[in-house]
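Practice problem 4.
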């Protein structure tokens, strides 16, 4: 039985939410060398290595060691999956340091994510944590 694009995205976010290694494991498993990941207003990466480098940069600059993703709504049109999420940024001690409401679209081919674009308030995402 093959997974639907929605199943792929749900599993991706579930693994991604499993601590610091879950985030990295999800990128390694579901991204391809050509996957485009757009964080509107912040950064765009192409491929697994650039995505992992962005994760490391966020850890160094903002103390974001992991992300806990709560899907609020999900819908699919063919291979495109729309998500409304509440993404919680987690530090190395496991404490939530910031939460962002995010709309995103992920494009799935087979069991891989080939494009991921997120839209959110990048000014709030970059603001210092109180």
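Answer key:
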């Amino acid at each position: 039985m093959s997974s639907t694009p929605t199943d792929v995205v749900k599993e991706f976010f579930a693994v991604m939410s499993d601590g610091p290694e879950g985030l990295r494991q999800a990128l390694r498993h579901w991204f391809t060398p050509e996957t485009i990941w757009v964080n509107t207003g912040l950064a765009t990466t192409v491929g697994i290595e650039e995505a992992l480098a962005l994760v490391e940069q966020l850890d160094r600059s903002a103390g974001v060691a992991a992300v806990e993703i709560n899907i609020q709504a999900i819908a699919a049109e063919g291979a495109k999956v729309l998500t409304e999420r509440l993404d919680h940024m987690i530090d190395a001690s496991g404490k939530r340091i910031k939460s962002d409401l995010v709309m995103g679209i992920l494009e799935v081919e087979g069991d891989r994510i080939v494009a991921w674009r997120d839209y959110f308030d990048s000014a709030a995402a970059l603001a210092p944590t109180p």
